[in-house]
């Protein structure tokens, strides 16, 4: 079924209507390059208030002073990025995408098939401009209505800047300041869109919030900006990403995510990242340079990060927790799978400031092919963090003899009452284990998938149910072709 | 046509010849025991039949159910009905025994063009099987073979065999590390599976297992060859006299 020009027009009309997009959407594309003009252009296009523009400019001016200081400490290598040779603003254009699934890379469709994704969602993920979107839009609308009744704010960052400036001004940049690091600074200057969540006092958000339902915000992937605030005594579980490999034409991704948990609040943030990893030689894959950080600001607050990282050519990502409130808890559960020529340098930082703060890190790295995977983590216990505790466990699994796994833990304790524990293991999938599984009728790929899923179980079981099932399948798919 | 025909099988490991011409024919319903001293190629025979890598067949053939067994990959053999109960079952951390059993069963069902087993049906099946083997049902929730005692591991092997219903089951020193009670339970499990359509190859050092699993034929392997075959009484002779006379004969 190939959508005609008419259908495409109709889709555009409806979309424009539903989301109130501006009429000159077609012409919205900034020229290549990064300059103050471009930053002003982005801000103007998004009809932002003056304070937001000022914040962007401040970040941009700072970035100019550090533009030659792209971080090099991570164990990843990639060709030098020319920041003047990229587009920083392109409004969503419906005609860009394939017109039907017939035009989509069959390999991608094969993967969707294996993940068991329904046809209509496949179209959406592949960026096909057809009416499949409408179903989801209506689902999303019902969903939003219910959240509104509960007092939850769940909208795009652009909407939040316009409609909830007091919250945005108070919290945006309060966890990741504009000067935090090279990529975060860049994001502060040119971020396009992202999610905003506010959970009111005492509310246990009854459903998982997912970007998946926010399909109206397309093309936000490149410089995504997310802010989640859990007010006193509230709870929210947020799902980011999707197990299906998503089509995206931007090679550089530099997102910033900030979480704020006030007294007795809890945030659970789960990510499945499966951006295009490039071909077998790593060509064309996404560079994923993300800054994610949570502030456990209140007493007894808790933040739990879970990530399943299987995509991208280069991953540079350290979801962290600043444990400010007394008795606050930070947890980090990670599975990072690299295959072919992928490189991942990922881990976490747990900064203990408050008394009796606790943190737990469970990181599982799986390397196959000629890939390289590094766990890099920091546990810092500050002088006032009496009774702080940390437990860290890093396990690496190697498949084949061409890949690498590295564990780089930094532990800094400035308080004698603190306790830290670190455990690390490195193992391989043994020929004996493979033979055992095969002797029971599992083919080599099923065998690897089963063994690796077992290896990651502790992490996968922290994911919300529906996400976990897909993630398990994804683990197997990511490692296809890794055993001969 | 016999179920299994092994003809003049020669196998080398790292260029060292281990099996030096094995001939063995087995029919459905038969239990064959293979006995012999350490290092004579008993386990090599079980591995080469199951398709483990690293065993080079330099000569000879094996047909199974009319097919060329040696042409098949290990997992194809398993789905075609070859089962090896391991002497040292492997641990698969993080994988629940039930998950493993279900995955294996579904792999076999898929091969036969059947749908995946229904969750309730699977549960009932496992309940019945664990009861038969006097295993606590809770065991299937544990990680496969992780922290299992020797006896539990062997019982888990028999549980898998009972679930997968192979045509040809090889038991590689299933009696090792079992106390007498566990030995009885495991043997009962195996005996319950004896069937006119199914053949067993029981590899053991000791005659005591063969008191419980009574074989139709006993073969003695020494230095990579079957040096004598007989019925169960041969096992009793071996128990009394040891392998010395065969070893002498092989050396001569």
Query: Count of DSSP E strands of chain B?
Result: 12
Could you say which structural class the secondary elements and strand pairing of chain B correspond to?
alpha/beta
Low-pLDDT segments, ≥5 res of chain B: none
How many individual helices of chain A?
A: 12
Order of helices and strands of chain B: EEEHEEHEEHHEHEHEHEEHH
Q: What spatial order of strands do you see in the largest sheet of chain B?
A: 6-9-10-3-11-12
* Major sheet of chain B: 6 strands, mixed
How much of the sequence of chain B is in beta strands? 25-35%
Task: Using the CA coordinates, give the radius of gyration of chain A.
Answer: 22 Å
Q: Please give the most extensive interface between any two protein chains, plus how many residues each contributes.
A: A-B, 24 and 29 residues
Distance between the termini of chain B: 36 Å
Overall geometry of chain B: globular
User: What is the subunit organization of this protein?
Assistant: heterodimer
Main pleated-sheet profile of chain A = 11 strands, mixed
Task: Identify the overall geometry of chain A.
Answer: globular
Helical proportion of chain A, percent range: 25-40%
Instruction: Tally the beta strands of chain A.
Output: 19
Structural class of chain A: alpha/beta
How much of the sequence lies in strands of chain A comes to 25-35%
- Overall pLDDT of chain B: 91
